[in-house]
Amino acid sequence: MQELPFELLTTREIWWRNPPQRDKMQALANRFIGFRGVAAAVDYYSWHSEKPTLLYRKNQTDTVWVSIPLVLPDYASHFNFGTLNWDDDDIGDLDVDTCNLDHRGEAEVLVTIRQSHYGSGGGQSRTAVNLIDVSGKPRLLLVALVEAGDSWHGPGDSQESGSSDAHRRIGLKRELLVSRIVADQYGSPSLLTPLKPGRYRYQGGRLVWVGR
C-alpha cells in the first residue's frame, strides 16, 4: 500500500487550470471523475502534459475537490519494447467505478486509464488500473497494467504484418475480481503486471486473495 500525494482544489481553480474541461465540470454531478490531467498552479497551459488525475468530493454539491495524481505502471518485462512511455496526448477519457470493498468509510475507487496510438504503420493500445482508498489520506491499493495490444504492417501491399495482444479483466462487484491473462504472444515474457487470478477482499488495510 502506498500513500498518494493530493491537493485540495475548488471547482473554480480546476476551471482555471484546465479550461477545456470547464463544461464537463459544470455538467457533472458525480462525486468521482477522472481527468487526463490537472495543471500545476504555475502554468495552466501545461494541463495536457500532466499525469492523469482522479478528482473526488465529499458530496455532489461540494465545490472543493481532492485532486490525486494517478500512478502509471511500467511493463512487467522490457524484453519486447523497453520502458513503457505513457504519452499524455494519446491518453483517452478515464473510466471510474466504485465499490465499498471493506464496508467501512468511503467506497474504494477503481480508475481505468487507456492509451492508444495508431498510424499508417500500425499502432498500439495500453490499459492500466489504479485502485484507491479515499476514506482518509488517499492510499494506492493496486496499480496494474492490464492490457497491451500491438499491430504492425509494412508499406503498400507488403505482407510484413502482424499483431499481438494480452489482456485481463479487473472489476468491482462486492469484491475485486481479477481474471486470468488471455494472450496470443506465446513464448514472449508477459508485459502485464503479474497478479494471481481470482477474488480479492479489502480487509485489515490490505487486499487479500480469497479464492477463485
Overview of this protein structure:
There is one protein chain. The chain has 212 residues and is mainly β. The chain has helices spanning 11-17, 22-27, and strands at residues 2-3, 7-10, 32-35, 53-56, 64-69, 95-99, 108-119, 122-133, 139-153, 161-167, 170-172, 176-178, 182-183, 198-203, 206-211. The strands form 3 sheets. Strands 1, 6, 7, 8, 9, 10 and 13 form a 7-stranded antiparallel beta sheet that branches. Strands 2-5-4-3 form a 4-stranded antiparallel beta sheet. Strands 11-12-14-15 form a 4-stranded antiparallel beta sheet, with no helix packed on it. The longest helix is centred in the N-terminal third of the chain and has 7 residues, at 11-17. The radius of gyration is 19 Å and the shape is globular.
Topology:
Elements: E1 2-3, E2 7-10, H1 11-17, H2 22-27, E3 32-35, E4 53-56, E5 64-69, E6 95-99, E7 108-119, E8 122-133, E9 139-153, E10 161-167, E11 170-172, E12 176-178, E13 182-183, E14 198-203, E15 206-211
Antiparallel strand pairs: 1-9, 2-5, 3-4, 4-5, 6-7, 7-8, 8-9, 9-10, 10-13, 11-12, 12-14, 14-15
